[in-house]
Every structure is written in C-alpha cells, then in structure tokens.
C-alpha cells in the first residue's frame, strides 16, 4: 500500500495538468492507495477554495473517488460519516470533526447552530 499527497487526488479530479492527471489515473488503477484523513480534508479545501468547486460538486467528486477499488481511507467509517453529514448540510471540516467525535459524550462548540441539524442532542456549548 502506498500513501498519497493531496495533489495526486486533485490532479485526478481536476485534470488541470493533463500529463499528471494521466499519471494519477494510471497510478490509481495499479496501486493500493492509503488516504489519510488529513489528505481527505485538504482535498475538499483545495477543490472548494483554490478550484472554486461548488460544495455539491466537491462531495460528488469525493464520493466517486471513495468508490475506487484501490482507495483505502485511514478511517473509512469516519470518511463515510463525514461525507454523509456534509451532504446533509454541514461544512465538510465540521462534518469531519463531528464524525471523529463519535465516541464522545458530546461535541462542544460556540457554533451550535451550524451543527443543530446534524446531531442536536450531542452538540452543546461549554
């Protein structure tokens, strides 16, 4: 298994550099790939921020990427939960934070309103 950097995923999903995109596509077809949670988070941020993708397009691209047979997330359940929460309206970073806190008694934030739809009983202020 080989670990990857964010730019490998970005090349695959954006095709902004045709040579690198072709190499990335070939790579994902041949290698078992480890994707750290931080790489997933940064990929969402880069696609939305630097490339101007709409949230729905980012999530669709990440879903398609997650469906590749050779892709293995650091924490598949957390990645799935974060995508589902983000599709439900949460910001992706907040969704990932909430998914990571799954075993905790509560998620503490001053931005309770942002999390209200996702898990109102488990989110509170300090």
UniProtKB/TrEMBL annotation:
Keywords, alphabetical: Hydrolase, Magnesium, Metal-binding, Nuclease, Toxin, Toxin-antitoxin system
GO MF annotations, alphabetized: hydrolase activity; magnesium ion binding; RNA nuclease activity; toxin activity
Superkingdom to which the source organism belongs: Bacteria
Chain positions recorded as Mg(2+) binding sites: 5, 94
Cofactor field: Mg(2+)
InterPro entries according to UniProt: PIN-like_dom_sf, PIN_dom, VapC_family
Biological function: Toxic component of a toxin-antitoxin (TA) system. An RNase.
UniProt name for this protein: Ribonuclease VapC
